[in-house]
Amino acid sequence: MNSFRFGIHRPVSLTAILYYAGLLCLAFLLTPLTAVDDTPTAYEVLKDYDFPVGLLPKGVLGYDLDKTTGKFSVNLNGTCSFSLEGSYQLKYRSTINGYISQGKLTKLQGISVKVFFFWVNIVEVTRYGDELEFSVGIASASFPVDNFEECLQCGCGMDCVNAQVKSIRTNPFAISSSWGNNLS
What region, left, alpha or beta, does residue 167 occupy, with left being phi > 0 and alpha being psi -120 to 50 degrees? Predict the structure, then answer.
Protein backbone atom coordinates (compact mmCIF):
# COMPACT_ATOMS: atom_id res chain seq x y z
CA MET A 1 0.00 0.00 0.00
CA ASN A 2 1.38 3.40 -1.04
CA SER A 3 0.58 5.83 1.71
CA PHE A 4 2.19 8.62 3.68
CA ARG A 5 1.48 9.61 7.22
CA PHE A 6 1.22 13.30 8.12
CA GLY A 7 1.43 13.78 11.87
CA ILE A 8 -0.87 11.44 13.73
CA HIS A 9 -3.76 11.75 11.29
CA ARG A 10 -5.05 9.01 9.02
CA PRO A 11 -2.89 7.84 6.11
CA VAL A 12 -3.14 9.70 2.79
CA SER A 13 -2.65 7.81 -0.45
CA LEU A 14 -0.17 8.94 -3.08
CA THR A 15 -3.02 9.00 -5.60
CA ALA A 16 -4.97 11.49 -3.46
CA ILE A 17 -1.90 13.72 -3.11
CA LEU A 18 -1.32 13.74 -6.87
CA TYR A 19 -5.01 14.39 -7.51
CA TYR A 20 -5.10 17.44 -5.21
CA ALA A 21 -1.75 18.70 -6.48
CA GLY A 22 -3.12 18.46 -10.02
CA LEU A 23 -6.24 20.42 -9.03
CA LEU A 24 -4.09 23.14 -7.44
CA CYS A 25 -1.94 23.41 -10.56
CA LEU A 26 -5.01 23.57 -12.78
CA ALA A 27 -6.56 26.27 -10.60
CA PHE A 28 -3.31 28.23 -10.67
CA LEU A 29 -3.11 28.02 -14.47
CA LEU A 30 -6.75 29.00 -15.02
CA THR A 31 -6.81 31.90 -12.55
CA PRO A 32 -5.28 34.48 -14.94
CA LEU A 33 -7.86 33.52 -17.57
CA THR A 34 -10.84 34.02 -15.28
CA ALA A 35 -9.52 36.88 -13.11
CA VAL A 36 -8.58 39.28 -15.89
CA ASP A 37 -8.75 42.86 -14.63
CA ASP A 38 -10.74 44.74 -17.23
CA THR A 39 -10.79 47.98 -15.22
CA PRO A 40 -9.87 50.84 -17.58
CA THR A 41 -6.73 52.84 -16.90
CA ALA A 42 -6.93 56.47 -15.79
CA TYR A 43 -5.93 57.44 -19.34
CA GLU A 44 -8.80 55.40 -20.82
CA VAL A 45 -11.22 57.04 -18.38
CA LEU A 46 -10.08 60.46 -19.63
CA LYS A 47 -10.84 59.37 -23.21
CA ASP A 48 -14.26 58.05 -22.15
CA TYR A 49 -15.09 61.57 -20.90
CA ASP A 50 -13.80 63.21 -24.14
CA PHE A 51 -10.42 64.38 -22.80
CA PRO A 52 -6.97 63.70 -24.25
CA VAL A 53 -4.66 61.38 -22.28
CA GLY A 54 -1.98 64.06 -21.99
CA LEU A 55 -3.84 65.85 -19.21
CA LEU A 56 -2.11 63.36 -16.91
CA PRO A 57 1.63 62.75 -16.84
CA LYS A 58 3.13 59.31 -17.48
CA GLY A 59 3.21 56.94 -14.57
CA VAL A 60 -0.22 57.03 -12.94
CA LEU A 61 -0.19 54.37 -10.21
CA GLY A 62 -3.93 54.12 -9.78
CA TYR A 63 -7.19 55.97 -9.40
CA ASP A 64 -10.60 55.87 -7.76
CA LEU A 65 -13.76 56.98 -9.56
CA ASP A 66 -17.30 57.15 -8.27
CA LYS A 67 -19.26 56.88 -11.51
CA THR A 68 -22.47 58.13 -9.94
CA THR A 69 -21.01 61.45 -8.70
CA GLY A 70 -17.95 61.77 -10.96
CA LYS A 71 -15.68 62.26 -7.93
CA PHE A 72 -12.19 60.98 -8.67
CA SER A 73 -8.74 60.68 -7.17
CA VAL A 74 -5.59 59.92 -9.20
CA ASN A 75 -2.35 58.71 -7.59
CA LEU A 76 1.09 59.46 -8.99
CA ASN A 77 4.46 58.20 -7.82
CA GLY A 78 5.27 61.40 -5.90
CA THR A 79 5.07 64.99 -7.01
CA CYS A 80 5.72 65.81 -10.63
CA SER A 81 6.74 68.96 -12.45
CA PHE A 82 7.93 70.02 -15.89
CA SER A 83 8.27 73.08 -18.07
CA LEU A 84 6.62 73.79 -21.37
CA GLU A 85 7.97 76.28 -23.88
CA GLY A 86 6.29 79.64 -23.54
CA SER A 87 7.28 79.89 -19.85
CA TYR A 88 4.57 77.53 -18.59
CA GLN A 89 5.59 75.40 -15.66
CA LEU A 90 3.22 72.73 -14.38
CA LYS A 91 3.26 70.97 -11.05
CA TYR A 92 1.26 67.89 -10.05
CA ARG A 93 0.94 66.73 -6.45
CA SER A 94 1.14 63.01 -5.76
CA THR A 95 -2.68 62.94 -5.51
CA ILE A 96 -5.05 64.79 -7.83
CA ASN A 97 -8.73 65.12 -6.89
CA GLY A 98 -11.81 66.53 -8.52
CA TYR A 99 -15.00 65.75 -10.38
CA ILE A 100 -15.27 64.53 -13.96
CA SER A 101 -18.19 64.69 -16.35
CA GLN A 102 -18.44 64.70 -20.12
CA GLY A 103 -15.97 67.38 -21.31
CA LYS A 104 -15.52 68.94 -17.88
CA LEU A 105 -13.16 68.58 -14.90
CA THR A 106 -14.22 70.64 -11.88
CA LYS A 107 -13.14 71.33 -8.30
CA LEU A 108 -9.61 70.21 -9.22
CA GLN A 109 -6.99 69.94 -6.51
CA GLY A 110 -3.38 68.99 -7.03
CA ILE A 111 -2.44 70.69 -10.34
CA SER A 112 -0.86 74.14 -10.48
CA VAL A 113 0.68 76.38 -13.10
CA LYS A 114 3.22 79.14 -12.67
CA VAL A 115 1.90 82.49 -13.91
CA PHE A 116 4.60 85.15 -13.82
CA PHE A 117 6.15 84.59 -10.38
CA PHE A 118 3.17 82.92 -8.69
CA TRP A 119 1.89 79.37 -8.54
CA VAL A 120 -1.87 79.18 -9.00
CA ASN A 121 -4.14 76.15 -8.88
CA ILE A 122 -5.89 74.96 -12.01
CA VAL A 123 -9.44 74.49 -10.72
CA GLU A 124 -11.31 73.57 -13.89
CA VAL A 125 -10.71 72.20 -17.38
CA THR A 126 -13.47 72.38 -19.98
CA ARG A 127 -13.45 71.05 -23.52
CA TYR A 128 -15.01 73.23 -26.21
CA GLY A 129 -14.67 71.35 -29.51
CA ASP A 130 -10.97 71.25 -30.37
CA GLU A 131 -9.98 73.58 -27.51
CA LEU A 132 -9.33 72.98 -23.81
CA GLU A 133 -9.94 75.88 -21.46
CA PHE A 134 -7.94 75.85 -18.22
CA SER A 135 -9.32 78.00 -15.42
CA VAL A 136 -7.44 79.23 -12.35
CA GLY A 137 -10.52 80.92 -10.95
CA ILE A 138 -10.07 84.57 -11.92
CA ALA A 139 -8.52 83.84 -15.31
CA SER A 140 -8.51 81.15 -17.98
CA ALA A 141 -6.50 80.20 -21.04
CA SER A 142 -7.36 77.99 -24.01
CA PHE A 143 -5.11 75.55 -25.86
CA PRO A 144 -5.69 73.18 -28.78
CA VAL A 145 -6.65 69.64 -27.69
CA ASP A 146 -3.91 68.15 -29.87
CA ASN A 147 -1.30 69.71 -27.54
CA PHE A 148 -2.31 67.02 -25.07
CA GLU A 149 -2.33 63.91 -27.25
CA GLU A 150 0.73 62.50 -25.49
CA CYS A 151 1.52 62.24 -21.80
CA LEU A 152 4.39 64.30 -20.48
CA GLN A 153 7.05 62.71 -18.32
CA CYS A 154 7.88 64.20 -14.95
CA GLY A 155 11.09 66.19 -14.96
CA CYS A 156 11.57 66.48 -18.71
CA GLY A 157 8.20 66.82 -20.42
CA MET A 158 7.96 65.29 -23.91
CA ASP A 159 11.57 64.80 -24.96
CA CYS A 160 13.34 62.99 -22.15
CA VAL A 161 16.04 61.62 -24.46
CA ASN A 162 17.30 65.01 -25.58
CA ALA A 163 16.01 66.90 -22.50
CA GLN A 164 14.18 69.35 -24.74
CA VAL A 165 11.07 71.21 -23.74
CA LYS A 166 7.83 70.65 -25.64
CA SER A 167 6.44 73.58 -27.54
CA ILE A 168 2.72 74.09 -27.11
CA ARG A 169 0.52 76.21 -29.28
CA THR A 170 -1.49 78.87 -27.55
CA ASN A 171 -4.45 80.93 -28.56
CA PRO A 172 -3.53 84.41 -27.25
CA PHE A 173 -7.05 85.68 -27.87
CA ALA A 174 -8.60 83.03 -25.63
CA ILE A 175 -6.89 84.18 -22.42
CA SER A 176 -9.38 86.01 -20.26
CA SER A 177 -9.63 87.42 -16.79
CA SER A 178 -12.45 88.75 -14.71
CA TRP A 179 -10.46 92.00 -14.48
CA GLY A 180 -9.98 92.20 -18.25
CA ASN A 181 -6.19 91.79 -18.04
CA ASN A 182 -4.27 89.79 -20.61
CA LEU A 183 -1.98 87.22 -18.96
CA SER A 184 0.19 86.55 -22.00
Answer: beta
